[in-house]
Amino acid sequence: MIIVVRKQAGSEERARLIEILGRMLGTLRPLTVTHMREREVVTVDNSNLDAQALATLRQQPAVEDIVTVQTPYKLVSRAFQPASTVIEVGDSAQCQPVTIGGGVPVVMAGPCAVENREQLLTTARAVKDAGAQVLRGGAFKPRTSPYQFQGLGLEGLELLAQAREITGLPIITEVMEPALVTTVAEYADILQIGARNMQNYPLLLAAGRQSRGKPVMLKRGLSSTIEEWLLAAEYIVAAGNPNVILCERGVRSFDPLTRNVLDLTCVPLLHQLTHLPVIVDPSHATGRRELVPTMSRAGIAAGANGLILEVHPDPDAALCDGKQSITPEQLWTVVQETQLMARLMNGEFLPEYVA
Ligand code: PEP
Ligand code: MN
């Protein structure tokens, strides 16, 4: 249940509402007060509240509306917000701003990891020339083995900021720990929370509270259900950041021929269940460079609001995820095809029927 607080409600009226709710729910169940864009809302799990309790709540002067949402995730659900969330990325003083979720698919691309200045700048220029709109690059890398390249850390963030200055592309980069959210948010235009951290609740809360208004792209956990994923997104939104982007990056399966299984069914399903934008990552989903262009088209055809792709000037020499990194030439084709697919889906090439 989501209680929308009346804008003009005074502090005593608000305090009274919270007090009544506290009494009704007991102390064991948390109350979350969230500022969601221009609205202030209180979200509670109301499974034990009866009709009389609801009527009492409705009569409170601080209450503007009560929205009952049946799913366990509330604020991110379409039932609460029917209109799709449109996210503005990038400060125009620093880069060319980009809109995610506004109907035109966005391509984000770049290396898995920032390796050095030359590699990043060469890739960033190629990303720009290909027509992609956001530069990706990992500075803090979650690696399966502790002996693999772990990323350049802060130096990687500095290099990303330089690449943004040179190309005008907004940047997305991963944050792995709550203590680094503020620092990463100083540099990044979008914070990425990786698959391995999808259920790192302290990190989700920090991304909700301390991301300086920067959007967060939340990747699906390695074997997470859609509901677990939406509840993870709910943590970020409930903690105060409504700008969350979901990213399908494939889920674990039994077949070693691909790295993961790209669950494209989740794309139209998510559009039903949530108002948040959905991005597809065919690089981590397939693990194979030659499959990335086809699955990029498939992602857009499924209705994704954009793609995130790994690209490297010399993929076989990449320090991280080279097998799934496409070349700048392949990226150029994927961007062209994405734009064509978007026009196709807009109905531009439909024959005109004469009645
Ligand atoms: C990445 O984007 O480089 C990454 C580590 O992705 P994931 O968290 O999806 O594995
Ligand atoms: Mn990677």
Folded structure, characterized:
With 355 residues, this protein is an alpha/beta fold. The chain folds into 2 domains: 2-67; 87-345, TIM Barrel, CATH 3.20.20. It contains 11 helices and 14 strands. It has helices at residues 11-25, 51-58, 117-130, 154-167, 181-187, 201-209, 226-238, 266-273, 282-286, 292-301, 328-345; strands at 2-5, 32-36, 39-43, 63-67, 87-89, 98-100, 106-110, 134-136, 171-174, 190-193, 216-219, 244-248, 278-280, 306-310. It has an 8-stranded parallel beta barrel with strand order 7-8-9-10-11-12-13-14, surrounded by 8 helices. Helix 3 (117-130) packs parallel to helix 4, helix 6 (201-209) crosses helix 7 and helix 10 packs parallel to helix 11. The longest helix has 18 residues, at 328-345. The structure holds phosphoenolpyruvate and manganese (II) ion (MN). Manganese (II) ion is lined by residues 112, 284, 310, 320-321. Phosphoenolpyruvate is lined by residues 112, 138, 142, 194-196, 219, 249, 284.
Could you list some keywords that capture this structure?
355 residues; alpha/beta; TIM Barrel; eight-stranded parallel β-barrel; 11 helices; globular; binds phosphoenolpyruvate; binds manganese (II) ion
